[in-house]
Amino acid sequence: MKLILRKKKAFSMVELLLLLLFVSLITAALTPVITKKHYKMPKPANHGAYLCYDKGNGKLHEVRYSGKALTTVVFDRDVTQCTFEPPQKVSYFHVSAIGGGGGGGDSGYNGGSFTTMGPYTEQLNPLNITEYMVSPQQRDITSNDFKNYGGKLYGFVVGANSGKGGDQLYATRSDSYPCTIHHTETYTTTYTTVHTSSTCTKWTEVTVEDSSDSGSDSSGSSGSHSGGSDSDWDSTSPEGSHTPDPTPSNPTAPDPPKHEVFSTDNGHWGNAHDNGSVTDTGSRQEPGQSGLNGGINIWIPGGNTHGGETYNIKDKKLRLDLPQFRFFNPNNEIAMLYPKYAFLFSSNDLLAYTYNRCDHYDYDEWTTTESQVNVNTICDEHRNYYTYGTSTYTGAPGAAGAICRSTIRQGGVGLTYNAVSIPASGSDGESCYPSYNLSPEYDSPHYGSTECTGNCATAGKTAGQPYSTITFAGETVNAENARTGGAPATCQGNGSPAGVAGTSCSPATVTEGCYTGRYGYCLKRWNSSTWEANTTYEFKFTYSQNYLQYGLAGEQGQYKTMVIRSFKDKEVPITIGLGGSKGVDGGAGGNGQATSFGNIMTANGGEGGEGGKLTAPEWLEGYRGGAESWPAGAINADFVEGKRVVRQEGGVEPEKPKPNNLSSNILNFLAPQDNEKITEIMDTYRIGYGGKGGGSKHNCWFGEYRKWLDGGELEHSYALPPEACRNNYERIEAENGKSGAVIIRW
Fold it and tell me: Strand (E) positions, 646-738?
């Protein structure tokens, strides 16, 4: 085996020394470069200063100083354009530019909104009222308020009732014998009827003239008509009628009956014609007012209707001036018709009449036969049928417990109430009902005529304790519960006797008639004579509130500063940023303008402040009295807590401009100008300040604050402030922003 050995190459001592020498040389060469100051921070040299600013009169102003303490004024003048001429042989210039400040926002204030709130109503339980609930932090009511207006109270408890006795039900049977099977049979019945009729074949018209003329009667005939006489009538009789129709057994018509004076009841009207005839219309009509020949409507008495029949009145037969006769009053003078006859009346006296008499009749007779089918129901079987009814005997009623109350207390703080809860009444006794089936049945009844399950109903129960108890304002009240329940019913009748009521009370029995439910309290308000159960106090209050308005201050202008070693131009133009205008009518202020130093440096203007800001509505403090005489605007009056305060909001001063680029570039670091002259100018003209925000001030910051308890006004209620005080407010004006400036030191 051949062994081959290779030597690892390494630096020799000489090589290492050369390397160290090389590194040392490089390090030594680099050290001055790293530690050398390329920019030395200059300190302000008091050789001179230049300022360009706005003095507030709308004109630019520039001033230049020289000397170590800037005691020499080179120039101090108003200009239309600021221009900086750099002096010669100056190593460094310290330049500061400040933009114009923003205008302040306007408050828009017109007194806020003074408002009286309420009245608000709160219901307060008279019990368990604590001192904290009536503290000034809560309702500002005192214990004395409850004594004065809290009325009188007592606690009540009603003893438990006892239950009624159980009911007893019994059954009664009803027997019957109905048909259960039946059939029907039919039969026919025949009827024969004989009919007869008569027809008049000869008529005779009979006219009776005026029967009131000289007491004599006359008659006349026309054509084939036979004459007639008024002897057929009895003028002294109030009755009368036409001749009846004949019959087969009486072929000749009998004599006419006595005439009657017809009334106008149930009648109708007929139409009169020119020839003296009258047609029955068969309907009721209103009478006219003309004569007989003028179309008079003539009254026809009686309930029968003979529409279309015509009757004659012969004028020549009557000794009357018929055309002058008025037929419109049925109770005075009127012509009246009855079937087949005409009558003329004057009041109740018959004047004349005409009728037709039948002198011959023909007769006819015939027979008809009719059949009728009838159905009969025949019962084949009857069965005994039994139904059952039930009746109930009731148990005796239970009894009531006693109604008791505590001692009557004055309303106030700390009244408590506790009740021992027991059932309101004992249970009712168990009722007893039959367990057997009472369905209807046939033939053999399962039960007798009456059935009862026995005297199994039970008596009513009591509450199980002798008393119902409450504790009212530390006093224990016991009301005796009902002592026994009602007796149960029996099969013989209703239960008796009723339960025995509880009557024992400690300490007193309720006599005021005030209780609702088992437990509670009764209240008689301070201004009432009536006791009310479980009611509440009514706490009512009003208060006033108002708010203020303000605007925010404008922001300060930007403040920039830098160091310049030289200028390319001999003159550098300067533009001074003007301050923003103040807001109006609650609006925001205008933004400030930018300040520029040539094209070297620009400082932006500040933003205008927001306007029309509102404070949260405040609950105004009230006063106890005496503020009515304070004059409006008397801000130096003696302000007493709880009476009158002055409230102001807004008008806040903006912040002073501060350099905002001191840390942006350490090579451009420059501290603020600290020369007294320069500081005085900056403070006097508030260089770059924003405008103060608008605000508001109210010199009578109080209002109404009134309270009532159950209608009684509390002693510490506050009255409404006078109008002069409610409107005693001021508006704090906003301000414009201030212009910027350029300040140069060398």
Answer: 647-650, 695-698, 705-709, 712-713, 729-732
